[in-house]
Amino acid sequence: MNQRSRLSLLVVQILIVSLLVALLGRLFYLQIAAGPKYRDAALSIQSRDVVAPANRGLIVDSSGVPMALNKVGLAITIDRIEIDKQPDKGVAVMQRLAKLLKLNYNDVFTNTRLCGELPVGQRAGCWTGSRYQPIPITKEADPDIALQIVERPDQFPGIDAQPISIRSYPGLVNVNAAHVLGYVGPLTEDDLTQDTGKQYFRSESIGKAGLEIQYDSYLRGVPGIRTLIVDRKEVITRESQNTKPIAGDHLVTSLDIRLQAAAEKALEDAVKRGRANGYTSDSGAAVVMDIRTGRILALASYPTYDPNAFEKGLTVQQASDLFSEKKSVPALNRALQGLFAPASTFKTISVVAAAAAGYDLQASYNCPSEVQVGTRAFQNYDSRNQGRMNMKKAIAVSCDTIWYQIAFDEWLRDGGLRPKSSPNDYFFKAAQAFQITEKVGIDLPSESKSRLADRDYKKSWFEQNKDFYCNYKTRATKAQQTPFLIQLAAENCVDGDKVRAGDAVNFSIGQGDTVVTPLKLTQMYAAIGNGGTIWQASIAKAIVKTDGTVIKTIAPNKLGTLTTAPSTVKFLQSALREVVVSGTGAGVFAGFPIEISGKTGTGQVFGRNPNGTLKDDTSWFASYAPTKNPRFAVVMMVGQGGFGASTSGVGVKAIYEAIFGVKGNKVVPGAAIYPNGKPPTNLPKISPATKPKETP
């Protein structure tokens, strides 16, 4: 062998050794260094997680009475592994089951499909869990039907009946509280894909609305996970791990279930009263607040819905009805999502504005039948000339024209359509002092922001709508082509970005583009009653573990203080008492043994109902009590309910009767919801068996 041959052989040997070293290094990496990673990956391919949902924590009122708890239901379930073995993939079985349960077969089929098995547009109601766990078709089956299924396994292979924990809203003392409590529902693909930072497990039920979603992270607990190892044929070979579920924590609220029931009843009666008086009266809201803390003691919205229906399973029609205008949109929480012109309840703002502008609150002013503003006459209610009166009486009898005149004069002083560089804007600033444009911050989802029709709003609105109004005849529908609307569009095209005289005078009586939520108005009147403190609205008081350990308390939060002069606040308090003594609220509260202070409001509404009729006025009554030592603020609004006193005022009176234990014209201490005149401060003991206190 020559030298060249030896060199070639050496090179080949080196290459072989290098390849062997590289191969050994790769094997070392795969087996030792990256072994755990690839073992986990292999296991994930061969493993299937079965989720055991945890019992949700209770939601209780301030006395510990459960408003949301868990109960045992009888679920009819389908075993996908078993029915998929059928020659027809379980079609005949599911058809028999659907007929027996009186369900639509297509719904049963969809409910048993994994979401990934269905096209994107057909996944509503699909199963988000695993095919290795029973899939519930109904959670509250008739025991007789369940027995038929269990006793006929030849007819229903893969179908079983088993107890299951379901969320329940027991409705003690006829309480509904759907808009406060909310409801739970199964996870959707959207829930799983949203980047919320929450770790969800398939087949869980989570909070979807109200307190259920707001405090879901506490209430839902920690699900148990059973990991099954399967072979390539999807046959279970062994169980890898099994963790037990951990029950969720309890939520203690400031609500009182008896007061909540009373508020709901009073609101429903008020809506019916409006209808009896000839108004459309299609909706409403009622709020009761502790004015010294901002805690919500009751909150009702009408119409409502049954939160238990979501656990039973909504039909397509039921789901549609929740958002139907013909049904008055039951899903809408009008207390914190509905926006309405506050009408004369807003005149408290006008008092603050007048005082800031230098008007003597003790002086007398004319209350004529109308005030001429440019080419338009702005009229008093019923076009009445009420003569000369002081401002206290003007609030009491709800004179409009006094405020028209003051607002118009101040608008002129601010420069009118050519405003000063720094206008005084007393009316806008008075509203801002009450934080009208800020949310009340209640611990419920989707609170609407009240709107203040000030200069900034007008500019923003104009930029958004200029094109529409300047091209109105081509952009508007035929129904919108009325002479008035055409003229209005022309005016908006020219100076829609400016506060016009009509805007200013409408603002002074709570009409025009300014709208508030009933909850915001409650916060506003609470601040007047307590002397000027603005509290954040809140419902939750504490989070408590199942063993009674308090893990979190939620303290009241002060948002600010009115900058209004104390003398002006005292004047307001005196005027609001006069409303009930000798003004528009006197008839409703005649002989009432508790001193009430409040203000009526009757808001004009523009537009038509779905049936074509003109919309009726919005009925308001905003109040606090007792007058000399205020503790409770109560506000009621009835949409299209007509006059404030006769519709909402009577409803507010009914709520106060429950709070103070009023029977006729006498106070019965034993019948009062709060015998010592204040809500409880101590946290209650929590038990699903706790019952509401009985009152005579």
Question: What are the key terms here?
Answer:
globular, Beta-lactamase, seven-stranded mixed beta sheet, alpha+beta, single chain, Penicillin-binding protein 2a (Domain 2), 35% helix, 696 residues, five-stranded antiparallel beta sheet
How far apart lie the N and C ends?
A: 119 Å
The largest sheet, given as strand count, sense and whether it forms a barrel, is: 7 strands, mixed
Which fold name fills CATH's third level, the topology of one domain? Penicillin-binding protein 2a (Domain 2)
Q: Which whole number gives the mean pLDDT?
A: 89
CATH superfamily of one domain: Penicillin-binding protein 2a (Domain 2)
Tally of alpha and pi helices: 24
Please report the total strand number as a whole number: 25
Rg, rounded, reads: 33 Å
Annotated CATH architecture of one domain: Alpha-Beta Complex
CATH class call of one domain: Alpha Beta
Considering DSSP H and I runs of 4 or more, what fraction of the residues is helical?
Answer: 25-40%
Q: Name the beta content range.
A: 15-25%
* Residue windows where pLDDT falls under 50 for at least 5 positions: 41-45
Class of secondary structure makeup: alpha+beta
Global morphology: globular
